[in-house]
Amino acid sequence: MHYELYDEEIGMKISFRKVEFERDVDMIHSWMKEDHVHPFWNLNIPLVKFKEHLKKALNDDHHTLYIGCLDDVPMSYWEAYWVEGDVLEKTYDAAPHDQGVHLLIGDTDFLGKGYSLPLLREMVRFQFQDDRTEKVMAEPDIRNEKMIHVFTKCGFKRIGSIELPDKTGLLMTCEREEFEKRWTP
Q1: H or E stretch including 40?
Q2: How far is residue 157's CA from residue 176's CA, in Å, rounded to a whole number?
Q3: Given strand 3-7, what is the order of strands in its sheet?
Q4: Is residue 103 within a helix (H) or strand (E), and if so which, with residue range?
Q5: What biological-process GO terms show up in the record (predicted)?
Q6: Domains of the chain, with CATH numbers?
């Protein structure tokens, strides 16, 4: 599935396309090595190991991997997933069609320019295209204050800290009704 929208606020087209292994593995691997990424993703690993990780992720049918683009320039990595069957499911009272999201801005040329919020807003809007989904969840690393701020501005509310296998996260929820009130013109 592909999603795109012209965003008046930033004057650019935001789009998401599915990750394709051969086309994207080297680019995503290079992003995982960036100083602003590796402390939170823990995937600053050799390419051969990262290839194994990405293949496994692409074959996991409970989530979909995307490359986020601005004006067709790949600059971010996204994981949209179903909470059901995920480790997150046991951390709160999950509904059957809750979704979750992970993201990173990989290309450093796009950092600090106000793109995270418009991108996150469009990914959440994309996830809410499934009429069964009433909540989109996030669990950013509790140390990642910048992303927590962006999630909050998008309409996510803090639930509390949670212990996950690879981090202490801040569980956050964005409910459809709140999102639509905030972002429907």
Answers
A1: helix 38-41
A2: 12
A3: 3-7, 12-18, 63-70, 73-82, 99-105, 135-138, 167-175, 157-164
A4: strand 99-105
A5: response to antibiotic; siderophore biosynthetic process
A6: 3-183 (3.40.630.30)
